[in-house]
Design brief:
This protein has strands spanning 3-7, 10-12, 18-25, 33-39, 46-51, 58-60, 68-73, 78-83, 92-99, 115-116, 120-124. It is mainly β. The protein is globular.
Length: 126
């Protein structure tokens, strides 16, 4: 059974950092692209970043470029999202998602991933 579990969310002050983790099980992890998405109250879910399977190519939304870094450890079946210089507008529930065939050029904007985690709350506030 394929499972994605996010962790690492919490409350942080503006300018602070958090590292989110997405732990996967039940599938051939390195064959799947992983995306991070977020949804703030009253807003649509939006793409944040994505990373391809074996090649590890990365892509970012303009709003987080230079502040967030996505990486994966295929030996641990885990994808990370390092978030630095956090802003109040980064407050949202963050989700990871997995898909074996999503086009790389669409992986940060498409919401058609096959599998989704349950989300982890990130709150940026003083």
């Amino acid at each position: 059974q394929l499972q994605l579990v996010e962790s690492g969310g919490g409350l942080v002050q503006p300018g602070g950092s958090l590292r989110l983790s997405c732990a996967a099980s039940g599938f051939t992890f390195d064959a799947y692209a992983i995306g991070w998405f977020r949804q703030a109250p009253g807003k649509e879910r939006e793409g944040v970043s994505c990373i391809s399977g074996r090649a590890g190519r990365t892509n970012y939304a303009d709003s987080v470029k230079g502040r967030f870094t996505i990486s994966r450890d295929n030996a641990k079946n885990t994808v990370y999202l390092q978030m630095n210089s956090l802003k109040p507008e980064d407050t949202a529930v963050y989700y990871c998602a997995a898909d074996p065939s999503i086009l790389f050029r669409l992986c940060v904007v498409s919401k058609t991933y096959d599998y989704w985690g349950q989300g982890t709350q990130v709150t940026v506030s003083s």
